[in-house]
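Incident log, structure service

09:12 report received: a user says their structure output differs between two submissions of the same chain.
09:20 pulled the input from the user's history:
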Amino acid sequence: MSTAAAPAFNPSTAHTRLNSLKHGATSKQLFIPGEDPEAFLSMLQENFRYYTQAERSLQRALQNVLAFHKDNVRTRQWQQLHELRPQKFEIQRERFELAKAREARLAAKSQKTKTSVANKADSEIRFAKNAFSSPQKSAPDAPQTTSTPQTPEEIIT
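09:34 re-ran on a clean worker, output below:
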């Protein structure tokens, strides 16, 4: 094992010692020789202000886009509503006409039923009048009765 001493610092090579520096991320020095730390910090502060200003502008632009989108959606909804209004009116008119026709059919059916019930009642009344006012005809199998009442008054007494 050799114990070689570290090379001595040579002032003539001081300017070449930074040749291999590529990005400085692992550097132990924050500034390279000859660089003004005040100018660097000033540039950093300006860039930060620019970043903040750009971020605020981006937020305003995003809010404007969202407001525009919201307004656009409302406009489309309004247009669709007004485009569909005549169709909706036509559907409501058709429903009204159908309801009116249904009501007329039900009224006619009710009238027909009332007429049918009245005719049935009339025929039963006529049958009852005929049964009590004319002599009864007996069926061939039924035994003949000698005295049958002829009128409703005779039945009551």
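09:41 both user submissions now match this output. Likely a transient worker issue. Closing.
09:42 reviewer note: The chain has a mean pLDDT of 79. DSSP finds two helices and no strands in the chain.
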